[in-house]
Write a structure and sequence with these properties.
Length: 475
């Protein structure tokens, strides 16, 4: 049996060098007794790094081992040495998620990552006096479960680069002075951290606590009790939880009360809706280019206004421009536009004779990597944009409006009935104007099953054919 005495609790390089030497010397995992210096004086110091070539291990093992070494489990060195030995003959060991060693290592890795994450969230710095002209100084006390101080210190160095700080823990400390980051495994004594700004912090915390959003289970999972001792705000939590139902009831009651007196005065000062432009549709389009009625204009490339003859008998309303429409500035020119064009042709309708527009004039999306993923507009956005749609209707005076999808129906009617309840009939929109509701073309693009897509496309064509028939009957 070889007893290896490591000088550090969580020094990956020290363990790696020892493991390499043992491995190259052909020492089997069960022949090694891993110890930390303070565990006893017997045994050899970790051997010097080998000169021979290193054993081969995948980078994913190194990443795993760097985390596992920080765990407090005394068996971690042995586990990692057994794994590195096995990797020499089982290179795909890490892909076996059921393997006992892999399971054990992943469990330790997860605990270390979680502890490090909690440290980044729960360290609370207190300011300490600094000499005149020097950088401000802060100190914090934290009690990690594992040896994570050195691993987590670079996070604090990046985040709090503009101050000098020290984080003390029973498992070592880290400090930043100027640009120098230092870490040590020496247990630190708990400092006196009374701080006059604590009262301010507690007032702030009490005020940002929203009782209507309280989810006690989720909160306890995110902020486990073992961390409370060093969180000043934790003292408030029981009282805030207990008082939450009463505060929610009071908030609900307040909503029902009449608006305060100044509300009417503010409303009177609210900007008046712009007058209908005298230059007709072209003027309206020009105005809409600068629309800031809702925040969607911030991320869209441009306003995508309706297009078509200004005396069109048929108006078609979609939801909102998509990615292609946003870039080209024209409605229905992307994939949904293709489906729409095909359906118009199949129904014998001429797109160029219709006025084609959208309920919402700016593209709403979420960035995922480089892709802009469509997001449905919410009720507020539809409501803000309704002003433009109403002006388009007032100027064009179409006889028939085809609403494609629920957003279009909502924008045109102010209601949100089920499409299925509206389809197959012609509805009165306002005096002298009718509405036919149908699905949105992108609904057809989303149907995964070809048979269903065929059926639904045929129904879409029928709805547009009904619009054609209604128009020719109306003359
Ligand atoms: N979807 C819509 O609703 N409108 C467009 O212009 C394009 C896609």
């Amino acid at each position: 049996m070889r007893t290896i005495r490591l000088r550090h609790a969580a020094d990956f390089a020290e363990w790696r060098d020892a493991a390499r030497t043992l491995l190259l010397g052909g020492v089997a995992p069960h022949e090694v007794d891993w110890r930390q210096s303070e565990e006893g004086l017997f045994g050899e110091e970790a051997p010097p790094p080998p000169v021979a070539p290193s054993p081969r291990v995948p980078p994913s093992f190194l990443e795993l081992a760097r985390a596992v070494i920080c765990h407090g489990d005394p068996a971690r060195h042995e586990l990692l040495y057994r794994m590195i030995a096995r990797l020499q003959v089982e290179p795909h060991l890490l892909s076996d998620a059921m393997d006992r060693d892999v399971v054990a290592a992943r469990r330790l890795e997860k605990a270390v990552r979680r502890d490090a994450h909690k440290m980044t969230a729960f360290v609370r710095f207190r300011e300490t006096p600094a000499p005149e002209g020097a950088r401000r100084r802060f100190v914090a006390w934290f009690e990690p479960e594992h040896h994570i101080v050195a691993r987590t210190a670079p996070f604090f160095a990046r985040r709090f680069a503009d101050m000098d700080w020290m984080i003390l823990t029973p498992r070592g400390s880290a400090s930043l002075t100027g640009e120098t980051l230092r870490t040590s495994e020496e247990p630190a004594p708990k400092p006196d951290l009374s701080d006059p700004t604590d009262a301010l912090w507690l007032t702030y915390y009490r005020n940002i606590f929203n009782p209507a959003r309280l989810k006690v289970k989720a909160m306890m999972a995110e902020m486990p009790k073992k961390y409370w001792a060093n969180l000043p705000e934790a003292a408030l939590i029981p009282e805030l939880i207990a008082g939450a139902p009463a505060r929610v009831a009071a908030m609900a009651e307040q909503i029902l009360r009449e608006a305060p007196a100044f509300h009417a005065r503010l409303q009177a000062r609210a900007p008046v809706e712009p007058e209908l432009p005298s230059q007709g549709l072209a003027g309206l389009r020009e105005q809409a280019r600068n629309c800031t009625r809702c925040p969607l204009h911030c991320q869209a490339t441009q306003t995508v206004f309706g297009e078509g003859p200004d005396q069109a008998k048929l108006m078609i309303v979609g939801e909102q421009p998509g990615d292609q429409e946003d870039l080209q500035g024209r409605p229905f020119v992307g994939p949904a536009g293709q489906v729409f064009d095909d359906a118009m042709r199949a129904a014998g309708l001429d797109r160029s004779a219709a006025y084609v527009t959208n309920a919402v004039k700016h593209f709403k999306y979420e960035l995922r990597g480089k892709r802009r993923i469509h997001q449905s507009p919410d009720a507020g956005e539809v409501e803000h944009c309704r002003w433009w749609l109403n002006q388009e209707i007032q100027l064009i005076q179409p006889r028939l409006v085809v609403a494609m999808g629920r957003t279009a129906v909502a924008a045109l009617t102010g209601q949100t009935p089920k499409l299925a309840d509206l389809r197959g009939r012609v509805h009165a929109l306002d005096p002298g104007r009718a509405m036919i509701a149908t699905v949105h073309p992108s609904y057809l693009l989303r149907l995964p099953d070809a048979a269903a897509r065929g059926r639904e496309t045929a129904r879409f064509h029928e709805d547009l054919a009904a619009a054609r028939d209604w128009l020719s009957a109306a003359g």
